[in-house]
């Protein structure tokens, strides 16, 4: 797949982070509910060596090794977020290029683009990073930013749940 989707898929940006796993889980639930395809996209860029063109090449990963690492990151993230039995349920795309550009290209024509974000930024506002901001500015489809679960809130809810308090011996 090198661009447009067919209008019946949900595209999710995956970079291996906890927020991207939250977005992947949310997108998988939506894709199931809507009976649509799920497309996980991982963008990667070659590591810049920062040396002059005439300087000897530093010892580092080759482009092939970098691409293989990107494939591994996507596979591991899908497996960790959705479990080992996802099989062909998720179309996985690894593309070289700036993340926002790659995501916008693959989301063109999709139902929506899902991105992860931290639960809160400064002043309690949603934390959207530079890739998310760029996607929000230029997307031609709806963009959903999915926050990671607030662990402190979940543990407080679990401690106060009726199943836990009701199971104590009198």
From TrEMBL:
Residues 151-170 are annotated as: Disordered. Gene3D superfamilies: HUPs. Residues 158-170 have a biased composition (Polar residues). Pfam families: Usp. SUPFAM superfamilies: Adenine nucleotide alpha hydrolases-like. Belongs to the universal stress protein A family. PANTHER family: ADENINE NUCLEOTIDE ALPHA HYDROLASES-LIKE SUPERFAMILY PROTEIN. This is Universal stress protein. It comes from Streptomyces hokutonensis. The lineage of its organism: Bacteria, Bacillati, Actinomycetota, Actinomycetes, Kitasatosporales.
């Amino acid at each position: 797949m090198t661009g447009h989707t067919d209008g019946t898929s949900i595209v999710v940006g995956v970079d291996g982070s906890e927020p991207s796993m939250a977005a992947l889980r949310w997108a998988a639930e939506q894709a199931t509910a809507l009976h649509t395809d799920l497309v996980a996209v991982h963008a990667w860029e070659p590591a810049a060596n920062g040396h002059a063109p005439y300087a000897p090449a530093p010892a580092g990963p080759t482009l092939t090794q970098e691409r293989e690492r990107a494939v591994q990151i996507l596979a591991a993230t899908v497996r960790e977020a959705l479990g080992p039995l996802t099989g062909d349920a998720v179309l996985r795309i690894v593309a070289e290029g700036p993340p926002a550009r790659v995501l916008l290209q693959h989301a063109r024509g999709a139902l929506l683009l899902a991105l992860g974000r931290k639960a809160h930024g400064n002043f309690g506002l949603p934390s959207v990073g530079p890739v998310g901001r760029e996607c929000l500015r230029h997307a031609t489809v709806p963009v959903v930013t999915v926050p990671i679960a607030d662990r402190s809130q979940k543990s407080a809810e679990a401690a106060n749940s009726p199943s836990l308090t009701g199971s104590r011996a009198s």
